[in-house]
Amino acid sequence: MKNFKRYRDQEIRFQDGITGIVGNNGTGKSTIVEAILFALFGLQGTGLDGNYIVSSFAGPRDLCEVRLDFGLDGNTYSVVRKFKKRPGSTLHEARMYANGRPFSEYAEGVQNVMQGIQRVIGMNPVDFKNTIYAGQRDLLSLLESRAGSRKEWFMRVLGIDFLKKGSMDELRAQIDGCEKEYGNLQSRIAELDADGAIKKQLRALEGELKAARQQADRIDREIADTGQRRDAALSERDRLQRAREEHIRLQGEEQACLAGIAVLEADMADLADQIAHIESSRTEYERLVSLEGRYQELRRLLPEIAEKKNEFERLTEKRGHLCDLLEQHEGRRESIRRDLDRLSQDEDLIADLFGKVERWKELEERLDRLRGVEPEYTRLREDLSRHEERFRHLENRVLEIRRDIAALEDKSLALASLQGEVSAYDELRAREEILSRAAVHAERVQACTEKIEEDAAQLRASDADLAALSRQCEGGDAVEQAIADREARREELAAEVSACAARRQAAHQELLKQQARLAEIVDAGADGACPMCHRSLGEQYADLVAELEEGCASLQRLLAGLETEHRRLSGERGSLVDELSRLQEERSRYRNLQEQIVLCRSKRGHIADQMAKRQAERERHASALREIGIAAYDPADHAALTEQLRELERKRVMADTLRGECARLPHLYEERRRYIHEVRDYLTEREAIENEIGLLSYDPEEIRELEREKRVLDAPYREYLNAQAELRQKPVYEEELETVSAKIAALHEEIREIDLRCKELAFDPEHHRQLSKEHQHAEEMHQRLQKLRFSMEQLPRLQARREEKHESLGASAEQLLRIREAMEALGFDDSQVSEVEEMVRSLDERLSALAGEAKAISGRIQVLESESGRLRQALARVEGYRRASDALLEEIEMLKLTRKLIADYTVYLLQVVRDRIEGETGRILGEITDGRYDSVLLDDDFTVLVHDAGEDYPADRFSGGEQDDIAIALRIALSRFLAEINGIHESTFLIFDEIFGSQDEERRNNLIRALRTQETYFPQIFLISHIADILGEFSTTLLIELGADQASRVQENG
């Protein structure tokens, strides 16, 4: 516990056995149990006040925290709660752990943890306080509560209430659902199959379906016949088409053959041209063959000359590169020499400029001194400028004030004139407000009058509609009476038909019996014995046979009459049903008219109410007009008054504006006087600043003169500095000159060696160019020779192809002749194809028409089959509904029987529970009272009756201490029973707070002894007491003491 009531920071580990929690009053003994209650259930249902949970000595930011660890069924549970009551809000956090882990969905949140606790221990806060924990002044709560509420509590905590109410409600809901479903099924049966209509429709549909199928068969036969004739025409058309295709093929072959002949003739002409062209090149070919030797010789010489050419070009390129480097180095050497000459001139320049440089330095020092006093001079000049600017501002402001004063004095005169004109404004404004209110009321009166007239017109129309509908409904009562008469007659006919059927059945049975007796007697003969009396028939045989035959004939006549009567009654009932159907339709029409009358009357009532409201509103606005003293509102008068007020408002605004502007006059007079004093002060300050400027001896003109002279000397000074910087580079230039001269000498030597190498090569570029040109021409002749050689080699092949083409031309001419002979033999006529195709088209049209008829009749058959299927499905649904209705009736009876059995079982269960609690309570009470009271009864209201002196008495008959004993025994018995039904076989505990105050020493000892006997069932029993005599009776004692800081502390004594 941290900051919980009287405890600042306290941890308590409870031991098994009886633990006594002792201490003076007010030290916080009961607070320990309240902490357990708070940890388990929070504030809800525990009776704890959240305003007094947090310790009074806790800081503003401190939280109250309680942690409870407990074990149950081998599991370890922990509950942690944090609480803080703020002025505007409350912080309450709760967490629950099982075996060191968050407890599933109940791990966090006040409500979740509450549900988790109730799931684990099976109790809510009220159950806990009535069984496990008996607080101060709560020990007798079960004994003193009302009988009804006590029985309700016992039934709820024992689970019987849930069994009774929950199951009864569930069964009632199921019965209601079944009855509702049964009603729905009956309604569906009535809707789907009124008077067997489905079977009648099904028979009519089957007749139509049979006729449609016969028509479909006829169409199918005609389609088959037409199809055969069409197939024959198609065969003939196919034969003619094959002939036409053969004719077309032969024509194509003829054209192809002619085209092939033309191609062959063209190819032969082309081959002749190629052969002639090749023969014309034979002379050139022979000349080129003679030049081929020179070409081979040039190809051998050219590579040797090419190697010399490459080496010569490489040396020439290298010599050019060296010459470029030599030119660069010589240029750099000349540049260095020019730079050295320029440096010699800089030495002379430095000597010439020395005097000017000294003068420049002298001017720089003079300017530095004058710039030192320049800030003070600038500040004084700025002050003087600000004073002058302020003076100009004051001068301008004084002029403005003079102009404003003159203008405002003129406006004061205008203001005095306007004030007289607007004096009547308030009176006119009041009059205008009255007229404005009157305008609103008058407008509402006019609107209500218009609406009332509209409502009156609607009422007249509604009355006319009602009269018309009433006239139409005049025959409704007669229809209702006719339906009642017909239904009564239908019931009479049903009874008569049933009676007639019963009489017919009885007569038929009697006829069968008479016929059987007659047959037996005839079989027995005159010498036989009577089947009834077993005497000889003898002379009575003929009379008995005649009598039986007459009886059978009479019964047959009776059966014929009954059959005729039955048919007559059935026919009359059928006619009556048809008439009832017609009358019910008529009644539905009348009822629709009556509903329209009700709606019309409702609408008329609504319009009448609305009209009354509007009349009342009109009268209210008219009364308001009379109250403000206006009999008739004049909009023109109101508009004129409004215009007059608008003009006065404009003048009033103008007057208010002038009044506000004229209010500035006193301030302007005061401001003008103040500015005059400021001008005088300004003149004094300006004179003082001018004197300070004179003392500085600072002349801006002198500075400008010195700066002009210095700028003239700036260029020589910079030349002087540049010349000095250049002279510092002279040793570098001299060293670089020596390096460049050495490189130039080396380059000259390398160029001389390259010239010697070129001379040794003896390469002639001109000779090389001539050989290359000759080789190029020889290469072209060689390529031309190769082409001509290829053409000469092709000449025999071209001549052979020309011979082949000639032979093919002869074969094509022979084939063309054969094709033309075949076309003549075929004898094809195209007009025959047109005739056959016309016949096929005509037959196709007929087949298409027949197919349309077949499709139509097929669609009709499908529709009829679909409708028949639908009716069969509807009939099946009706049969299913009837079976379901029968099953529901059986289910309803079973559910009602189940409710009765559960009601009987709860009575039985209550008796069993009472017997068990009575026995355990009596045994514990006997241990506490040394056997004086060992028999306890619980009546039907769970009132405790204790047996004493041969009678059973209620608890309030006994003394206070005895009542405490009875309450303790009852609580222990209840706790054991609840632990058993909740499946808690260990880790259960009991808490009793101040139960020894009403007991004498003997009873206290008996009570402790009785509690020790319960340690088998309750391993931990906590007793809170302030009585010191019983300290030695506890297994463990927790001594509660109050510290100097007003915080309680716990000391454990074994």
UniProtKB/TrEMBL annotation:
Keyword Nucleotide-binding listed: no
Rad50/SbcC-type AAA domain span: 1-218
Identification of the protein by name: Dna double-strand break repair rad50 atpase
Stored InterPro entries: P-loop_NTPase (IPR027417), Rad50/SbcC_AAA (IPR038729)
Keyword terms, alphabetized: Coiled coil
Coiled-coil segments: 168-229, 261-346, 377-411, 545-603, 737-788, 833-891
